[in-house]
Design goal:
Elements lengths: L17 E3 L18 E4 L3 H11 L7 H19 L3 H4 L1 E6 L3 H15 L3 E5 L8 H12 L4 E2 L10 E5 L13 H10 L3 E5 L22 E5 L13 E5 L5 H6 L13 E3 L3 E3 L13 E4 L24
Parallel strand pairs: 3-4, 3-6, 4-5, 6-7, 7-8, 8-9
Antiparallel strand pairs: 1-11, 2-12, 9-10
Helix pairs in contact: 2-4, 4-5
Length: 313
Amino acid sequence: IFIPKVVKSLIAVTTVAATIKTDQSDPPSDTHKSASEGLPISFLDQKSSIELDVDLMGPYGYTLEQMMELAGLSVACAVSEKYSNLQKFGNILIICGPGNNGGDGLVAARHLWHFGYRPYVVYPRKEAKTDFLKALQKQLIGLGVNIDTQMQDLDAYPLIIDSMFGFSFKGTPREPYGGIIEKINQSKSIVVCVDVPSGWHVEDGNVSGKGIKNPDMLISLTAPKICARQFKGKYHMLGGRFIPPGIATKYKLELPSYPGSMQCVDISSCIPKEEGKEPAPLSNETCICTTGVNPKFELGNSVSRILESSSTL
């Protein structure tokens, strides 16, 4: 997998001031009461996201496969946290791209099977690019999970996980992915996006108009990307909790703590204070958010994203 050279200068993590929305009709549990003060949450730009992953795979000793496994586990946990009812009566369609974001989806499918769901996978690429991705497919086949190259009838799936493109995507989605995204946008299914909605630029959002529209859930990994400020769906989740303190310090990451042993945390209450106002590029951007848990910042509480091997798939 091609890894670009590390950007020598530290890329600033962007931030934006925000207010707190609290759902009084759905109070937090007694174990994790919401705090009286909000917590700043960092947003990452594209260069920061890439450099952070390269750092993790360099001096910190993480492997691409290890980070992909942790990301996929976070996705499965977030879906299970908010859509536990689908364990009993619903199928889940997971559409995976050819790169590392697609690998996250393959890992998530395996964990969701073990959680009691019925996952089905669409993998449009005829053959996986790496031995690890091939191994992930074999693991699913061993569980009896169906993997198709052709798009399914979306009406049969109450929930769709979009795991096609990640934070390195640029341009307009090529076929067959452009047609797949169009069908998803026309469906009535719940749509869950992994890290960045497919077809969105990591900073500018759905600038082409050809990306996923109106997803119901966004699962950010490591930290929300700048485009996540345009997300208007019901649930915004943050996944993972393993980033080293040195990485958190270098990139000035401010993230919520995770309850107990959870691999995800709900950050849906984080919204921009000045709606529609975009910050200057590479400016510090902070979002104040309450999560329903103790908001004490703990270093090491985020999952890293894996570097995408292609920018225009």
